[in-house]
Amino acid sequence: MSDKNQQAGERAKWLQAEFEAISELSKVLRLHIAHMPSTNIAEWLGGLKLAYNRLHEHLDRFFADQREGGYLDDILEERPRLERDVTRLRHEQAELSRIADSIQRDLDETGPDDRALIADVCARIQRFMAIVANHAKCEAMLTQLVFNLDLGAGE
To answer: Average pLDDT of 78-101?
Structure first.
């Protein structure tokens, strides 16, 4: 296997591991939200904040890795014709960061007596996770396309 193909394979494995981590963190959040108790909300809310913070921090690191000489630059180097797709993904990442920050602020300000706010932030977290999952699929498809092209599947 050439160095180029090996690097592409390593990028694909890294990306797959990142997506799996995001999926697992999202699963924990979904399960936590699904089991909201009618009493002792303070403890449950603390768990929600902790679980969301883990997802938020992971996404921040993931997006930072991509911005700082990450695999999206490699995709552009290999396939300049994919610039529009890469630009769209980068823009979506910026949007996702804004949404994540907004949810984090609201969640931090939400207390155990704020039932309507808790319901709202839970719905927003679930919508956010769905958007992140869709974004991850688009990234995976683009990476797979480039990886297949690098292996000689043709353009």
So the answer is: 94
Token pair of 40 as six digits: 């002792």
pLDDT tens per residue across span 10-36:
777 888 888 899 999 999 999 999 999
Q: What is the DSSP string of the chain?
A: --HHHHHHHHHHHHHHHHHHHHHHHHHHHHHHHHT--SS-HHHHHHHHHHHHHHHHHHHHHHHHHHHTT-HHHHHHHH-GGGHHHHHHHHHHHHHHHHHHHHHHHHHHT--TT-HHHHHHHHHHHHHHHHHHHHHHHHHHHHHHHHHHIIIII--
Cα separations (Å) of 50 from 44, 56, 100, 101, 127? 10, 10, 14, 14, 18
Structural domains of the chain in order of their starting residue, each with its CATH number: 3-153 (1.20.120)
Per-residue confidence at 153, pLDDT binned at 50, 70, 90?
Answer: very low
What was the pLDDT predicted at 8? 67
